[in-house]
Amino acid sequence: MYQIPFNVPPFVGTEMENIRIAVEENHKISGDGPFTKKCKAFLEEKTGTAECLLTTSGTDALEMAAHLTHIQRGEEVIMPSYTFCSTADAFVLRGAVPVFVDIRPDTMNIDETKIEDAITDRTRAIVAVHYAGVACEMDTILDIARRHHLYVIEDAAQGVNAWYKGKALGSIGDFGCYSFHETKNYSMGEGGAVLIKDRDKAEEAEILREKGTNRAKFFRGQIDKYTWVDYGSSYLPSELNAAYLWAQLEKWDEINDARLARWNQYREELQPLADGGLSAQRPHVLHQDEGPHGAPGPHPVPEGGRDPCGFPLHPAPHGAGRREVLPLPRRGCLHDKGVGAASAASDVLHADCGRGDKGLRQDPVVLSKPVREGDRQEGHGQSRGKRQQTGGDCCALRNRG
Predict the structure, then answer these.
(1) Which pLDDT band, with edges at 50, 70 and 90, does 273 fall under?
(2) Structure confidence by residue, pLDDT tens digits, 211-238
(3) Crossing angle of helices 239-249/34-47, nearest 10°?
(4) Residue whose C-alpha is closest to residue 254's, from 183, 169, 186
(5) CA nearest 116: which of 138, 148, 139?
(6) What are the residues whose beta carbons fall under 8 Å from the beta carbon of 312, sequence distance 6 or more?
């Protein structure tokens, strides 16, 4: 049987030539060479951010953002309960406490109406995860952060070239984090980028990224030698990865248009299944707020509609963008037919990061738990919001329903 892969890494045809140029002509394969600089300048121009630095992964971009907030051990970071583990890892490594807030049924993003209930005098930041490139309700989140003096970090790993009210995802909060993993729309194999809104943070970020040295200044000719000036790590991707990515960025619009065309094809071909009552374990949600080119959005969710888990679908708040639910066959059915399928975020973090000796398992958050693969039960208990200390020297965990 022919196997349809879950993902085929994007390839536009000029990647290998770029890599050849890096090796044979530029003689530069370590970080921050000509291709890295091209990618940096391109992303800064497209997003309007003050500073963009390529990293070795989206996870490393999140780690850099966590460092740049100067969050301290025991301080709290609010994030959605349904996300990939890297969102929490970046802050747990700093000794911070992830505070999990429930998600919205229409977007699977953090429910902005529940954020303020989770804020304490220990809260330092809010992480807005744009799940599947669907924008969080950023105006509300930014207003909450402003009133409570909190950082906003956008986990826009899946949101490259996605927009919220004309603003690029990743460029709206204090820090934005992109992923260029092979499963993303634009890829360098393994890689990412951190976007920095405040130019005053740029030098600190450069030092952090270059092992705690002011090496970037040295290469720009601003100092005659570089030294170790602060803590840091090595977050520079290889120039070979950047050369691959540059080929993709040169086809910025073409790649996006091709993805949209494929989505529309899937929608058209699968609609008869949806009309016949065959639905997915959770909704497929498409968000296309208007970007700089005024991309059209799909049909809105009908009033009174319910997702495949039985939860009501609510129309988006005014200005948040247009959404559409397209039921799809279950993952097991697809595998039986030779079609690769996987979850974008396999686990509900508040339930799973407490396994084994890493901590205590907690009550599920109301909506996040049922969308987890294989669990479609309703009627889960409300989170009690208690603070519980994990085993050993791990972080504490809190969740809010």
Answers:
(1) confident
(2) 999 999 998 999 999 999 999 999 999 9
(3) 40
(4) 186
(5) 148
(6) 105, 304, 305, 306
